[in-house]
Amino acid sequence: MLEIGIVGYGVVGRATHKLLGKDINIHILDPEVGHTGDMTRCNIIFICINEKDKSMENLISLINILAIKNKKCLFVIRTTVIPGTTDQMIIRHKREFVFMPEFLREWNAEKDAIAPDKIVIGTENQRTFKILCLLFRDKIEPEKFLQVKPIEAELAKLALNSLALIKVVFAEELNDLAKAYYADYKNIYKIFELDQNVNERHLKANEGGYRGANGKCLPKDTEFLIRAGEGKNRMALLETAEVLNELYLKVK
Questions:
Q1: How far apart are CA 130 and CA 88, in angstroms?
Q2: Catalytic residue among 42, 48, 73, 217
Q3: Contact 123, 150 (CB under 8 A)
Q4: How big, in percent rounded to 5, are the helix, strand and coil portions of the chain?
Q5: The pLDDT value given to residue 207
Q6: Residue 39 DSSP one-character state
Q7: Which residues neighbour 40 within 8 Å (Cβ) at sequence distance 6 or greater?
Q8: Which residues of the chain fall below pLDDT 50?
Q9: How far, in Å, CA of 163 to CA of 64, rounded?
């Protein structure tokens, strides 16, 4: 029987568990919540910890330890990373790593976990791609699987959340402009909802009395993508949106 490991049993770890098919032995490692599964027996290990540091120090340290304890498993990183991290792990450990991002929305994580709109698998190995597709085949339609390079999957994960942050900042600016013209932003939002070219998500302004994009993912992933552009291609628009977002977060 296939032995699968899940390291980190928060939102992403639980979502990964829910997607796995039948006839699989699942070992969970997350001592903080009482899970002490044995990773040495696993054929595939999903890394699902929450890495907040741009240095990737916690993730790299964890992988270094697991790679010594299990020299044969396939590592699948689901933790959001600085682009290039997966390829660095491949070179450092001289073995295969896959980057498989999650696209869970904080407010709808449970539903997204069991009914994802896409499964992106970052690997250039066709055999590995097929193996991972088979793991989730009981619950995911074949057309939802997409194979890309690890670096492409890493960038896409950060880009989607960064684009969401830009939309939030735009909505807040437009909301302030509407007030200056004595217009009701709620009516403008209704037009966004009906427009065929716009996904209205993230365009609600001053939602619940709060301003800007907060939470676990949007600010962090935006910062990661800005970091990725350093020395390569500066993300000037994103840098501006980040500054504006920080200002909105301070408004009460």
A1: 23
A2: 217
A3: yes
A4: 50, 15, 35
A5: 80
A6: G
A7: 69, 70
A8: none
A9: 33
Each domain of the chain, given as residue ranges in start order, spans 2-148, 155-250
0.85 cut: is pTM over it? Answer: yes
Structure tokens at 205: 């302004």
Phi and psi torsions of 121, nearest 5°: -120, 110
Quick one: tokens of 216? 């676990």
Q: Does domain 155-250 sit in CATH 3.75.10.10?
A: no
Q: Does the annotation mark 48 as catalytic? A: no
- How many other β-carbons are positioned within 10 Å of the β-carbon of residue 50? 16
Q: Are 15 and 104 in contact (CB under 8 A)?
A: yes
Which H or E run includes 127?
A: helix 126-135
Q: State phi, psi for 42 to the nearest 5 degrees.
A: -80, 140
H helix and E strand count, the chain: 9, 8
Match domain 2-148 to its CATH number in 3.40.190.10, 3.40.50.720, 3.30.160.150, 3.30.70.100.
Answer: 3.40.50.720
pLDDT of residue 224: 95
Pick the closest to residue 230 from 82, 59, 51, 81 (CA basis). 82
